[in-house]
Amino acid sequence: MSKQEISPSVIRRLPRYHRFLGELADKGTVRISSKELSQQMGMTASQIRQDLNCFGGFGQQGYGYNVRALRDEIGQILGVSEHRRTILVGLGNLGRAIATHVIFPQCGCELIGLFDSNPFVAGRDLDGMPVHHTDTLSGFCHQEHPELAVLCVPENAAPVIAQQLVSLGVRAFWNFSHGDLHFEDPAILVENVHLADSLLTLTYGLGHESSNETAGGTADSE
Amino acid sequence: MSKQEISPSVIRRLPRYHRFLGELADKGTVRISSKELSQQMGMTASQIRQDLNCFGGFGQQGYGYNVRALRDEIGQILGVSEHRRTILVGLGNLGRAIATHVIFPQCGCELIGLFDSNPFVAGRDLDGMPVHHTDTLSGFCHQEHPELAVLCVPENAAPVIAQQLVSLGVRAFWNFSHGDLHFEDPAILVENVHLADSLLTLTYGLGHESSNETAGGTADSE
DNA sequence: TAGATTGTTAATCGATTAACAATC
DNA sequence: TAGATTGTTAATCGATTAACAATC
Fold first, then answer.
1. CA of B63 to C1' of D23 (A)
2. Segment A115-169, tens digit of pLDDT
3. Are the Cβ atoms of A14 and B200 closer than 8 angstroms?
4. B118-124 — which CB contacts under 8 Å span 24+ positions?
5. This model's pTM is above 0.70
6. pLDDT digits 0-9 by tens, A159-206
C-alpha cells in the first residue's frame, strides 16, 4: 500500500517483465528464479530482485517466483485491468495503424472515440468504430469524460488540441506528433513517442561500425 | 576523430538535440547558448555541454553555439546524410504506417524494398513501391545488399526472418514485432520497439495519480 | 577591457551490482 | 536438516550537476 516514489528506470522496466512473464506463463512455466529470468531477459538477477522489491516481496526464499502470480502482480501495478477511457485524434497512416495495431484493452485502455479534422475521414468507420469530426471533441468529452488521449495529429496542431483536451479533463497524452508536448502542471502526464529517434540510434551504431576492431566491441544495443 | 566510447544515455539524447536545433534553425535562430537551449528542452545546461563535448568543442566561449552548424554536426554524428540500404518486412497495418509515415531519408536510410508473405499483399504497390514476396528475400539481398531491416512481422516469424537476414548480410534491425530480438554477435544491432510498453508507463502514472496530494508531486514524465 | 559562455574538472547523486543473512 | 533463493544492505559504478578557469 505504501507507495514510496518508484524511480522512472524501474517503471520503464515493468512492462518488459510483464511481457516476459506472460510468455513464460503461456508456455506453462510455473515457477522461475530471478537468476533464470535474468538470463532470459539479459539482465542481472540483482536488478530483478531489487526492482520487484520496490513493490513488495513477491517471491519465496528457496523457491523463486510463481510466474503467473508475479505476472498478475505486475499487471496490477501497471493497471492492465483498468478501463481508462481513451480517445485517439488524427487518423492518418499512423493513427489508423495505432488504432488497429495496439491492443488497448491489454494496456488497461478502452478506446471510446476516434477523431479527425478531415471531413472525408470523419463520418467513416475504422474497424467498426465511427470516426468523429474534431469539432465535436468538446461535446464528446463533456459526455464521455476520456482521461487519456492518443495524439496522431500534425506537429502544429498537437499543442492546440492538447491544451483544449486538458481543459476538457484529459490527464494523459500519448503523443505521436512530431515535436515534444509538455505541460507545466505535473499532474498532466505526457509520453512523447518519436519513432525516428529510435531509428537514428541504429544509424548511429551503423555509422561507427566501420571503425571496427578498434574498441572493445561493447556495441550491444538493448 | 578519436571515438572514445560514447555512453548510450548520450546517444539517445542526440536525436532530440537534432530535432530541437532543426526547429530553431527553421525559425531562423542563428545562435543559442547552452543555457537557453537547456530551458527550451527542459534539461540542464551542464548536461548539454557535457554531451556535446563527447564529440568535440562545437561552441565558442562567450558566444554559445551556432544553431545550424551544431545541428549539422549532430546530424553528421547520427549519420542523417547516409544512404543506408533498408528493407521493410511485413506490411500489415503497422508496416504500412511505418513505411509511409517515417521519413527514412531524413534518418539516413533509403527504403529499397518492401516484403510481405501474404500473396494478396505481395505484388501490389505501396505509395508507388512494389511489395515483393518474402520468398524472394534471398535473391533480393544477394543483389541489393541491404544493411538495415525494419521488421513488422508477427512475433513468431521475427526471429526466423531476422536470422535469415543476418546470413544475407543485414547488420541492423528495427524491430516492431512483439517479442524482443537479440543476437549473440554484438556487431548485429537491434532496436526493439514496443509501443505498448510506452503506453503502459502512462497507465501506470494514471493508476497512482488518484493517491495524490501525498507525495512531493514529482510526477513529470519526460 | 569587461561580459559572457564555453570546455572541463570535481562533487553529487542515483542506479546497478555484489554480498549475505533470513527463511522457505 | 541441507539446499536454494529471496529480501535487503553495502559497495561500485555511471551519469548528472555544479563550479570555475580558459577564452572568445
1. 11
2. 999 999 998 999 899 999 999 999 999 999 999 999 999 999 999 999 999 999 9
3. yes
4. B118/B91, B121/B91
5. yes
6. 999 999 999 999 999 999 999 999 999 999 999 999 999 999 999 999
Q: Is the CB of A7 under 7 A from strand D?
A: no
Determine whether A99 is exposed, middle or buried from the number of CB atoms within 10 Å of its CB (0-12, 13-18, 19+).
buried
Angle of helix B157-167 relative to helix B137-144, nearest 10 degrees?
A: 40
Domain architecture of chain A: domains with CATH: 3-78 (1.10.10.10), 84-196 (3.40.50.720)
Secondary structure of chain A in the HEC alphabet?
A: CCCCCCCHHHHHHHHHHHHHHHHHHHCCCCEECHHHHHHHHCCCHHHHHHHHCCCCCCCECCCEEEHHHHHHHHHHHHCCCCCEEEEEECCCHHHHHHHHHCCHHHHCEEEEEEEECCCCCCCCEECCEEEEEHHHHHHHHHHHCCCEEEECCCCCHHHHHHHHHHHCCCCEEEECCCCCCCCCCCCCEEEECCHHHHHHHHHHHHHCCCCCCCCCCCCCCC
Render pLDDT for B52-91 as a digit per residue (tens, 0 to 9). Answer: 999 989 999 999 999 999 999 999 999 999 999 999 999 9
Q: Is the CB of A33 within 7 Å of strand D?
A: yes
A199 touches chain B (CB under 8 A): yes
